[in-house]
């Protein structure tokens, strides 16, 4: 004797269909391929803007802050556009942080690529001499000379600068991601 299957109400079928159509929210992290691709793309675009700003009239604080904040917001916009998944403010911060890590990594590569030829050609010695001839007080000049003459102090100074740049790039991009997620969110209650 065949068993009759119970009839499923039409409202439940519609609800199940609507749930299946919605994209799954995935965690924003380095294991999310779309987030990594978007973060790297936006970081490259940001560096393409940031490096010319740095070379045009000197590196200004505004020339660093605005492109980095903008990169965080743009990464959220690109991610939402690519995946169709709206991001919360926390997910926007994570997306911005990923972008900031890539901005730092690209900066590190550019810094390394530019410093190696300077070391080989003796250009670094000219930079040191120019820095030592700058408008410094006698005590500052002594400290600067000590840093340039001691490879360990020079390495520590560079590592400190890189640490500060890493924290700044990731923090500013995270803030930009939070702002982007808040402004781009369709539901104003979230």
Descriptive account of the structure:
This protein has 190 residues and is mostly helical. The protein has one domain (28-184). 77% of the residues lie in helices and 0% in strands. It has 7 helices and no strands. α2 packs antiparallel against α3 (61-83) and α4 (89-121) runs antiparallel to α7 (151-184). The radius of gyration is 25 Å and the shape is elongated. The mean pLDDT is 79.
Features:
elongated, mainly alpha, 77% helix, 190 residues
Describe the secondary-structure layout.
Elements: H1 10-21, H2 33-55, H3 61-83, H4 89-121, H5 123-132, H6 138-149, H7 151-184
- What does the main sheet amount to? none
Number of strands: 0
Q: DSSP helix count? A: 7
The percentage of residues in β strands lies in: under 5%
Please bin the fraction of helical residues: over 70%
Order of helices and strands: HHHHHHH
Helix/strand-derived category reads mainly alpha
Structure, briefly:
By secondary structure, the protein is an all-alpha fold. It has seven helices and no strands. It has helices at residues 10-21, 33-55, 61-83, 89-121, 123-132, 138-149, 151-184.
